[in-house]
Predict the structure.
Amino acid sequence: MNTTEIHAGDFLIAEPFLKDNSFSRSVVLLCESDKNGSLGFILNKSLPHKLGDLLPDMQGFEFPVLYGGPVRMDMLHFLHCVPDRIFGGIPVGNGIYWGGDFDTMLELIKNGEASLHNLRLFLGQSGWAENQLQSEIRENTWLITSAQRDIVFGTNIESIWKDSVRLMGKKYAEVVNYPIDPSLN
C-alpha cells in the first residue's frame, strides 16, 4: 500500500513512541477519507462515562463509551456489525458500519441485544484537515493496514494496539514490546 494512500476501512496504528496524549498507542478506524480530510474513531481509549451518564433516557444502562478523539466531544457516535438490525449505517469495510438509526441502536441496548461484540459507542471523533493525515503518515506517525472486524469488536480494548500491530507482519512483531518511553527502560 502506498504510504499516503488511505481509505475508509483502514486502521491507523500509532507508532510506538508517539507522545501525543490523545493518540499514544492508539488505533483509529478511518470512516471517511477524501480530498477534504479524514475522520475516524480511536478504538482503544476508555472514558469513565457510561451511556446512562450521557443520556437521561438511558440511566442505569452501563454500556461503555470510548474516547473517539479530541474533536467534537459533544457528539456520540457508534460503530456496529449488525446492519440487518440497525438500518442506515454507512459501510466502512469488512462488515463494519458507522452510525445508522440511533433510536434502534438504543433499543438494542435496552433489550440486551447489543454488546461489545456488535456495538461500540464513542464520544468525540478524530479528524484531519485536507492533506494533514497524509503528512503525518509521511512523517511515520502512523502505520496503515486494513481494519479487522474481530479487532474492532473484540472485548479487550487494552490489546487492540498490540493486535493491530501484529497484523503488520513479522517485521513489526517486536514493536509490540517496545516501552512507551525508551529512556525509562
Summary: The longest strand covers residues 119-129. The longest helix spans residues 102-110. The mean pLDDT is 91. The radius of gyration is 16 Å.
